[in-house]
Amino acid sequence: MSLSNKEILEKANAAVTAGDNEGFLSFCTEDTKWTFVGDKTLEGKQAVREYMAKEYLEPPKFMVDHLIAEGDFVTAIGKISLNAEGEKKIDYHYSDVWRFHDGKMTELTAFVIEI
C-alpha cells in the first residue's frame, strides 16, 4: 500500500526531527527546489543537504497546527524552533506548501516569520 502525500510529509518530518537529515532527503526528488519567500531558493538535493547541515545543527522542533492535502500539494502550518549556525534557538511561524511528484517531495514554497 502506498503512502498518501500527507503521510509522506509526516514521515519525512519525523526523520528530520530525529536528526536523520538523509532519511528526510530520501523523501525528496533529486531536483527538489525549496523557495523561502523573500529570502533564498535552493535547487537540488545537494543544496538542501548543505542547507540542513548548516541550519539544523540541532534537529528542528515542529508543532504542526494544520496539515492540508489536495491533489499533488500538502500545506503545513505551524511553528518551528531552530538552532542555526552560531545562533541561539529561534522560534518561527511557518506555512510550507509542498508539491509532490511520484510520491516524492519535489518543491517547497516556505513562508517563515520569526516570532
UniProtKB/TrEMBL annotation:
Signal sequence, start to end: none
Residue ranges annotated for the SnoaL-like domain, each copy included: 11-107
Xref: InterPro entries: NTF2-like_dom_sf, SnoaL-like
Protein name as annotated: Nuclear transport factor 2 family protein
Record organism: Flavobacterium piscisymbiosum
